[in-house]
Amino acid sequence: MRITRIVDLSVPVGPGTVVYPGDPEPRLDPHSTIERDGFNLLSVTMGSQTGTHVDAPYHFDEATPRIDELPLERFFGPAVVVDATDLGPRGRITWEPHVEPVAARLRPGTIVLLRTGWSAHYGTPAYFEHPFLDADAARRILDTGVRALCIDAINLDETPDDDHPGDGFPVHHLVARAGGVIGENFRNLGSVDWPDPVVSCFPIALESADGAPVRAVAMQLEPSAEN
């Protein structure tokens, strides 16, 4: 097999990185410089859920695995894109009409990419008004054996605010109980436009953490020519 195309699915981490309300904001400060010390080195401060990241089950359930305890197979594999770009602010991604068209391709080891198009609003207040996954659709996806669900928005569940109190992050709890992982703040899912993409979203091995940033990519593979 050889890689013929790679699409970056990650947002940059820096002062402009969008964070979930109340989460730590990232800081990248020079610690050493070539002029003073002979080498460059950054001091990096950020939350475990910064930028494009994955949640371990431990994020919502203390009795479940932490990010460094999960099998790496959770973060690499064939991907299926669910098209939910028809939705407006706070729209629900449901089994029908969104997931059902690709349901036959869902199986253990598959990574589900929920494409809402909401990454176009990154850096604006509208980013927090994103579509989100319906709990019943999440149950049915998990019933297929899928254990990795990723979205191009800041939250797989609805993000609450004063006007929308939310309903307690039901999808996070469902995925945690199933031992699955959630990826958030993905982008460029519209560029994953070929059949059978393979996705890599390996997290930093933060000890005993609830989640970690990733450099997520989608790869197009083709068989190597026979010798």
From TrEMBL:
<dbReference type="Pfam" id="PF04199">
    <property type="entry name" value="Cyclase"/>
</dbReference>
<dbReference type="InterPro" id="IPR037175">
    <property type="entry name" value="KFase_sf"/>
</dbReference>
<dbReference type="InterPro" id="IPR007325">
    <property type="entry name" value="KFase/CYL"/>
</dbReference>
<protein>
    <submittedName>
        <fullName>Cyclase family protein</fullName>
    </submittedName>
</protein>
